[in-house]
Amino acid sequence: MSVYILVVDDEPDVEALFRQQFRRDLRAGRFLMEFASSAPAALERAVEMEDATLILILSDINMPGMSGLEMLPIVRSVRPDVPVIMITAYGDAETRRKALANGATDLMTKPIDFAALRQEIDTRLEQAA
């Protein structure tokens, strides 16, 4: 069974950073990571992966066009089974409130605490097993 994590961010270096941080997990086949550079592309992938085991969506908030906060209620309606963690450089109380009110499971601030993210992924993997 293939287990996927979808990462949504318009910054091109994010994919390399995530692949570096999780290289052992990816190499061992614990999960696969898909990357989308925009909210519309992420929505398309979430729908296409309907039959796949998508265990987590990690999305940046500030992106050109559709923001992560605008995408959040749509992706939650399309894939209510998949938790979404929003990622932002601005972890203020209002942003957190909006993210959680729109269905986010959590909000992480940049720079990302990869140890905490790894724990979250491990929890999601256990639940999917």
Automatic annotation (TrEMBL):
It holds the Pfam family Response_reg. Keywords: Phosphoprotein. Residues 4-125 form the Response regulatory domain. GO terms for biological process: phosphorelay signal transduction system. CDD domains: REC. The modification 4-aspartylphosphate is found at residue 60. Gene3D superfamilies: 3.40.50.2300. It comes from the Bacteria. PANTHER family: CHEMOTAXIS TWO-COMPONENT RESPONSE REGULATOR, STRESS RESPONSE REGULATOR PROTEIN 1. This is Response regulator. The lineage of its organism: Bacteria, Pseudomonadati, Pseudomonadota, Alphaproteobacteria, Hyphomicrobiales.
